[in-house]
């Protein structure tokens, strides 16, 4: 028994040198290393509606809201920087999301994912020093990763065949890894692995799991043309999409819990 405990202690010590684990518990949300918050009025910490006893984040999406509506008032956002001074090139992010029984997917919307560099990285700029790998929900419980990467990235033909971007054009983001991810009325765990590419090479990796089942794996990713590392979590959720047909027709709520990052 003592030898087992010693071995366990040793294993934990060794692994903590090579990896870093950050756990986001909404009971301690005030101590999360966050910044750049917006639409804070649409989020609150509540008891898990499924009765686990956990504190979870409840997000409001008012009727008519979608991301490109001028003055959009739907959903919420903030960024999490969990790595301190560490330069992180490989990480997994997982969290759980609950869409209640009265949820309407409409055409889809954003969900959290990893990001690197500037928080303002978007479909409208060159993204030379930033990237993001947010998830999205889509019609009928579909899901996918929605990538912003450097617009001068040299993508592989395999990547271009997999993405939803027309002609692999960098005009907006790259949807990739899509399939049925979500049901309503139960907690669903989604996880992404991001291994950044070597600048100038097509050797990055993106892997996606839903409820521990692998949904996607691709090892010729180009996330960056420079050396930008993984900065943390872009917690962003809203409907859209840049046209009004992405808007939620009624006020709906989602819930989030159990954020966890591991680096390797
Ligand atoms: C793009 O990457 C491929 C594969 O590594 C390489 O053969 C090609 O020369 C690259 N093209 C440019 C413009 O860098």
UniProtKB/TrEMBL annotation:
<dbReference type="InterPro" id="IPR048958">
    <property type="entry name" value="Polysacc_lyase_14"/>
</dbReference>
<dbReference type="Pfam" id="PF21294">
    <property type="entry name" value="Polysacc_lyase_14"/>
</dbReference>
<keyword id="KW-0732">Signal</keyword>
<feature type="signal peptide">
    <location>
        <begin position="1"/>
        <end position="19"/>
    </location>
</feature>
<protein>
    <recommendedName>
        <fullName>Polysaccharide lyase 14 domain-containing protein</fullName>
    </recommendedName>
</protein>
<feature type="domain" description="Polysaccharide lyase 14">
    <location>
        <begin position="52"/>
        <end position="259"/>
    </location>
</feature>
């Amino acid at each position: 028994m003592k030898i087992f405990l010693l071995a366990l202690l040793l294993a934990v010590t060794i692994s903590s040198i090579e990896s870093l684990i950050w756990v986001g518990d909404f009971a301690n949300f005030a101590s999360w290393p966050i910044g750049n918050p917006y639409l804070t009025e649409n989020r609150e910490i509540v008891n898990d509606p499924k009765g686990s006893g956990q504190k979870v984040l409840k997000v409001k999406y008012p009727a008519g809201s979608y991301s490109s509506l001028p003055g959009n008032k739907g959903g919420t956002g903030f960024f999490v920087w969990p790595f301190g001074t560490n330069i992180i090139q490989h990480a997994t992010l997982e969290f759980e999301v609950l869409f209640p029984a009265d949820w309407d997917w409409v055409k889809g919307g954003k969900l959290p994912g990893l990001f690197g560099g500037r928080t303002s990285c978007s479909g409208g700029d060159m993204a030379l020093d930033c990237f993001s790998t947010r998830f999205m929900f889509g019609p009928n419980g579909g899901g996918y990763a929605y990538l912003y990467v450097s617009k001068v990235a040299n993508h592989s033909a395999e990547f271009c065949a997999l993405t939803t971007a027309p002609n692999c054009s960098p005009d907006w983001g790259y949807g990739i890894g899509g399939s049925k991810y979500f049901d309503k009325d139960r907690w669903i765990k989604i996880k992404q692995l991001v291994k950044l590419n070597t600048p100038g090479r097509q050797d990055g990796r993106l892997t996606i799991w839903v409820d521990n089942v692998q949904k996607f794996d691709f090892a010729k990713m180009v996330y960056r043309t420079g050396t930008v590392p993984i900065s943390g979590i872009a917690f962003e959720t809203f409907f859209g999409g840049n046209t009004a047909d992405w808007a939620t027709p009624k006020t709906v709520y989602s819930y989030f819990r159990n954020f966890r990052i591991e680096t390797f």
